[in-house]
């Protein structure tokens, strides 16, 4: 199954400082900014695009339960995950299962932009957090 880079997720301590850097230094454009209070997300999120490449800046809103807060405590700020777009998330998950790669079922969700996503188990990805996603409600160009 074909996979293309969808976006990079970057864990940050200060959303304001990071937005300023991505816009003023990298020349990016802010596409959206919102808060997700969903369990397992709990972050302020800014989506910035630089020359067609999207980055999600993720700042924890709950330092006790946010996975972004845990990530920053364990590894520091920086790249949190790499997201790959697939044509059909269900088919991609079946393919992963056949290949012996586990997914984290509790991360399966649809975000506010209609992106359906799931994270692969980092134990099966050499420690890298990888997201698979599709956009089932988006009409192709």
TrEMBL record:
The keyword Coiled coil applies. PROSITE patterns: VOC. Keywords: Coiled coil, Metal-binding. One of its GO terms (molecular function) is metal ion binding. Residues 79-106 form a coiled coil. GO terms for biological process: L-methylmalonyl-CoA metabolic process. It holds the Pfam family Glyoxalase_4. Residues 4-135 form the VOC domain. SUPFAM superfamilies: Glyoxalase/Bleomycin resistance protein/Dihydroxybiphenyl dioxygenase (SSF54593). Belongs to the methylmalonyl-CoA epimerase family. This is Methylmalonyl-CoA epimerase. The lineage of its organism: Bacteria, Bacillati, Bacillota, Bacilli, Bacillales.
């Amino acid at each position: 199954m074909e996979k293309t880079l969808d976006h990079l997720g970057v864990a940050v301590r200060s959303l304001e400082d990071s937005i300023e850097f991505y816009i003023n230094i990298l020349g990016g454009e802010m596409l959206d900014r919102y808060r997700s209070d969903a369990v397992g997300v709990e972050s302020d999120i800014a989506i910035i695009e630089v020359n067609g490449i999207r980055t999600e800046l993720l700042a924890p809103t709950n330092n006790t339960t946010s996975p972004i807060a845990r990530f920053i405590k364990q590894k520091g700020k920086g790249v949190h995950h790499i997201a790959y777009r697939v044509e059909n998330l269900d088919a991609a998950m079946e393919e992963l299962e056949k290949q012996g790669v586990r997914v984290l079922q509790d991360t399966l969700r649809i975000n506010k932009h209609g992106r359906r996503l799931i994270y692969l188990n980092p134990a099966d990805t050499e420690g890298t957090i990888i997201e698979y996603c599709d956009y089932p409600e988006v009409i192709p160009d």
